[in-house]
Amino acid sequence: MPPTDSMPLDRLQTRRAQGVPTVTILAGPIGVGIQAWRGWAATRGRTVRPASDADPTALVAGWAEDAFAAGLVDDATAWLAAVAGADADRMTRHDLDRLWQGLPIDPAAPAARAAYRVLADAATGARPDPEALVRELADPAAVVRGLTGLLPEPRWPALLLVEPPGADPVAWLTAATAALEPLVAAEPRLPVAVAVRAEGVERFLAARAGTRGAALVREGLVEVRGVSGDELTQRLRAAGVDPPPAAAAALTAGGLADDVADAFVAAAATVRRPTAGDVASDFRSVHEQFLFEQLESLPQTAGLFRPNAELPFRHGPRTGEADLLAERPRVAVEVDGAVFHLHPEQYRRDRRKDWLYQQHGYVVLRFLAEDVVENLPAVLATIVDAVTQRLPRRGACP
């Protein structure tokens, strides 16, 4: 399927709604699989936590972090009001302990234990700690049952496990299915997917024929495909652009979604023929749009960056804006050249802006628009390196 076709993913979600434990297996170019799952989840208002570590505890810890970010304190408060008719907003830790002794449901149930941990932290003013909850519940499946028991189903984060580069596909997919099977059994409605190379799926099914893991993979299999190198070359030439070999090869090797291919062609054409009309919707230039879509396809950066994001400082007479901003690691990306950097004063303004970035704790990375097209691998490697250094937990997803 192309990444914009949601019908196969909707069909599998219907299975989940019917209580059938399901893992979507996105077989094909890894980048296209990531984009397909993120795009599907975004249309349903769900966040996605990409990971490559198939260790169940590490996988659930990342997912729990996203669940906490979805407003879990309010949901735990609402859960307690529904179960015990009590208002947690007015309770001290002592009040909470006394209430839990007489809770009308089993206080050892996963949802009750999750609610207690969340509300106890809130009562003492402690920072919500998803890792503490994961340690306390110990069993990853219990963590899923507990948090899905508090959060309304439409706000459950979606899980995405991504095959890492260089992994043995049979061994990795065996570990992945073993980690995910108890999670989807604990809560069949939980949206869970795996992005894996097609040849890896074939080898896994041959090596693990007749196992429950093989059945899980076969039932959730969705083939994804990207734009080939020849197809991209044809599009570039049709736009009057000589294909930049290194960038084109790197793009298609990792998997290239159709809309990203279109953005690349537009960016390549604009580098050679810049005009003031070459501005994409929600972006200042087609180069920013193309780079953003590339970052959305990488497990290390997917979901981190926002385009045209406001900054916590003024730049000139207005609030500053970043071309692309990752707030958690405090990394800003600026794309220079093409339309908006046509005379020296604009460069001087940006040097002043770089100093403001540094004063507010941001790392700012600047790239020429032409390098986004012609030297894309180096641009992406620099951004990934900056994010990994400043957000170590994302390093679990190579």
From TrEMBL:
It comes from the Bacteria. InterPro entries: DUF559 (IPR007569), Restrct_endonuc-II-like (IPR011335). Residues 323-386 form the DUF559 domain. It holds the Pfam family DUF559. This is DUF559 domain-containing protein.
